[in-house]
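Ligand-bound model needed. 2-phosphoglycolic acid.
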Amino acid sequence: MVAMRPIIIAANWKMNSTPADAGTLAATIAAATNAADVVRVICPPYVCLAPVREALAATGVAVGAQNVHDKAAGAYTGEISAAMLAGLADWCIVGHSERRRDQCETDELIGRKLARCLESGLRPIWCVGEQLEEREAGRAEAVVRAQVARALSASGLGGGEGAASIVIAYEPVWAIGTGRTARGADAATMAEAIRGALQESGWAHDAAERVPVLYGGSVTAASIAEFLAEPAIDGALVGGASLKPDEMAGIVARAAATAAARRAAAR
Ligand code: PGA
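Prediction:
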């Protein structure tokens, strides 16, 4: 029996929008993407969480943060804890490659953040992905499997705890913000490898199969179909295109069609 996973489209606004304009943009995107069968999440900058939350209140679109600190509280100037996000966000991106690159986030730190999210009731969107040289050297799968294993080992979630909550985004680093996407088939192979790595870390087969794996990296309304055509892929983490309501409308429309087709096939 194949696990019926939700289709998720998550918007990563990165360091874009302001508290003055974020609510309007979020409301416009929500109105343009009305699809009951698709889990929609918008992740604005921290300072825009409150206006976005308010703008999305009656829309069914969830709100996520882009990062969280691994500690509960303390002397960490400029940081944001999971408790501070209560009432503002239900989701949280963890381990984005831009933070791995610019803030030197390690898999061990990312694992601790995952545990913090789960403990606090935040649904993590956990990002993994290889560099271009790693793919060209034929090491992409080994690199991503190792990212999964190291973070899980640091998280203490080796028994499949949080399986119902965790979402993984496979984002090849060379495809982020470059206009260059992975091939659908390669992303699907990686999604299967990720579920395999969860099992190697001690998760039961069913728990690993329940985890949605999204693709991320230059996703647009034009490129999303190739990924959603792969049964192993359950949606997308969208960066640049997520600031454009027309692009989001096209992406979510395709996701809704995929959700309907998968449901019909599972009957
Ligand atoms: P992109 O970003 O869609 O602009 O490539 C995706 C991401 O970084 O999550």
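The first helix runs from residue 22 to 32.
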